[in-house]
């Protein structure tokens, strides 16, 4: 239906990983230091990350879009993945104390996501597997989920990079305080919540999904953070009468605590949010979405099957057919 044909094709796919740092990482909510974000970008480009290994295995290109790392990555060129420089600022603000993004920053990050889709569409890409990387971004996504759905902080906040019991208790306290700050602003709109509690890479993901919906391109949704971005995109699309749900294919339900709640919220918003895989993944970076790409390719291939009549196969007996 998206391709308006009985011979759908998914010959060219691209994994797009949006990358940004988060000011809330200053609060010690992750098991890893903020420097890991930029280090992972370099690993992506060199081809040593999970998504680049999986991209090679499933025949998908990998593109990394820097929308907000707190690092100079101009020297990071060549290799297995293409790096796109679209930095809005060097990381979002600390959402515990301030809105994560201004209106202008949110708009610029969203446009970076839209441009990634336009670039892919011009290149003949038919499906985008969307991923993310950014130390602190499960904290941002958990705060967004709780604010948008009303689920409890305990339900929304998981271990992210694998934090200890002590650190997860601290992470929940940070999210609870950030929610209190946001609620005090009185802006409960989807857009305002994204600006207040989101991140630059999450805003880019939202923009990418909105643009893909307008162009009727497959979007394969990765893990927890991308699923929360999908919820934001679907709600914004509903507000502007631009259906986003039909282009979204949900790759998996991961091990992160809030992921099942995010999937449920997407289903309640009109998505077919049944995950294609359930492998207890938690890595992100479009790894789960890359794993799901072959299933979509096989779904397209099934349109080449012969009908019983074409294959000269006998039909069912009448009583079984009636049943």
Can you tell me about this structure?
α9 (224-239) links the parallel β5 (218-221) and β6 (248-250). This protein has helices at 35-46, 50-58, 103-122, 137-149, 153-156, 165-185, 190-197, 200-215, 224-239, 259-268, 287-301, 308-311, 318-322, and strands at residues 13-20, 60-68, 82-85, 127-133, 218-221, 248-250. The mean pLDDT is 95. It is 47% helix and 11% strand. With 323 residues, the protein is an alpha/beta fold. It is globular and about 70 Å long.
Short description:
This protein is 47% helix and 11% strand. By secondary structure, it is of the alpha/beta class.
Which structural class fits the helix and strand makeup? alpha/beta
Mean pLDDT: 95
| Strand runs, count | 6
Percent range for β-strand residues: 5-15%
Radius of gyration: 20 Å
The topology string of helices and strands comes to EHHEEHEHHHHHEHEHHHH
Secondary-structure blueprint of this entry?
Elements: E1 13-20, H1 35-46, H2 50-58, E2 60-68, E3 82-85, H3 103-122, E4 127-133, H4 137-149, H5 153-156, H6 165-185, H7 190-197, H8 200-215, E5 218-221, H9 224-239, E6 248-250, H10 259-268, H11 287-301, H12 308-311, H13 318-322
Parallel strand pairs: 1-2, 1-4, 2-3, 4-5, 5-6
Keywords summarizing the entry:
single chain; six-stranded parallel beta sheet; alpha/beta; 323 residues; globular; 6 strands; 13 helices
